[in-house]
Every structure is written in structure tokens, then in C-alpha cells.
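Q: How would the C-alpha cells look for this protein?
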Amino acid sequence: MDNLNKTELKDFLEYTVEKYNRPAFIDLDPISIPHKFSIKEDIEISSFLTATISWGNRKAILKAANQMILYMGDSPYDFVISASESQLNRTSDFYYRTFNGTDFNYFIHSLRNIYKKHGGLENVFNELSTRYSLQETIGRFKEVFFELPHQERTEKHVSDPTNNSAAKRINMMLRWLVRNDNAGVDFGIWKHISTSSLSCPLDVHSGNTARKLGILNRKQNDAKAVFELDSILREFDPIDPVKYDFALFGLGVIERF
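A: Here is the predicted structure in C-alpha cell form.
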């Protein structure tokens, strides 16, 4: 793809976004879990929990995320707000790779604290957000999320771009909740954060694809690489740069680009 100029490359990416940013994409993707719900709080809680365990095989992710929802009685918000200690203790049986019952239990307690003391997930991000980028916001969100007593091991499940993490999973969740794609994939239920401030969820697949396309030079998939990729994608579309995640994902994972 090195012989494409910027206009041709943008056109290619726009074409690929159209190819994958459609409802047929949903069923085999982690975003299918929050699509089970219609209540705003259920959508955002299930999005956060699903995104948190979104690494590895997609079928395994979907199986584990569905198990999390079952533990919560298929009502994430009600469970977060009103689950008894005995109900919360049942979550200790859950595990997916390195995310275990201890982590799940703390996540429920922290979400309860966020909804009861901070006005909910959206309100926390609204209050912490900056206009140009949400990467520093994510780091500040992590501080709020871990303000309750917790085991140190659980902290690894919420990434922090200020420590040079690409924060792929939280950036993916933010795409789901902030971006309104008019195609029925991303929800767009968080109205006060601009899509222009979203960053591409960068992982090994999207990173390798971006390098092959010549829009990312940095070899590590870290916060510096996210900043570099953001700079190019915002040139292509300053209003909705994160839509190109569909192109990078589709090319990398589905088409083995």
C-alpha cells in the first residue's frame, strides 16, 4: 500500500469502513453483549465489563462475557445497585484468563460506588474529559475507579495511557458509547463527549495493519503509537476519526491483510 497517496489511502479506508460498519458485524463481536440491552445503564455497564475482558479468542470472550451477565441476573444495573453480599459472593467463581472472581467482585463494588457517589460512568467521564483527547481522562478515571480498598492485582485490568498503555479496551468501550454511527453498531448514548476526541483501540491486529498501510511507524503498540495513529486518522476525518477502527479491524482480523 506504500504507493497510495493520502487521498487514495483515505478513500480505501472509507470504503473498508462502509464494508464493516454495519449490523452484520455485531453478532461475532464483543459489542453484541451490550446490544442485548435497551436501558442506558445496562448498556454502559455491560460495555465496560465486556470491554474489560476483551482480549484473546472472540468466541471465548463472548462466552465469558455472557457468563458475567448471567451472574448479574441479566440485569447489570440492578445487580450493581442492589445485589446482596451473598449474591456478590457468587461472582467469586467467575474467571476469564487473568480476570478472576476477586476482580469481578471489586468491579461491581466500584461500579456501585460510581453510580451512587459519582453520578454514573458517563458523568465521571464527562467531568474528567478534555476537548482534544480522552487519553489523560482514562488515567484519571482509573484513579476514581480504584478509590475503594482493593487488591493491587485488580488494577492491571484498567489500563492507564499516562503510563504509556494503549488502553485498547477502554478506548473500544468509549467508541461504543460515544460514537453514533447511524448504522446500528455503536450506541452513541453518551452525548457530551465529542467523537473527535476518541482514539483508535490499538492492538496487535490494528497496529500491524496500520503499519502495512504506512499510517503508523512506531513498532510498539503503546500510548505513543496511539498518539501517532490519532494524528493521521484525525487528518482523514477530524470529526469521526475512530470510525477507521472498523477498517483496521476488518482488514487485520477478518481479511488477514
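The first strand starts at residue 95 and ends at 96.

The radius of gyration is 18 Å.

Upvote if useful.
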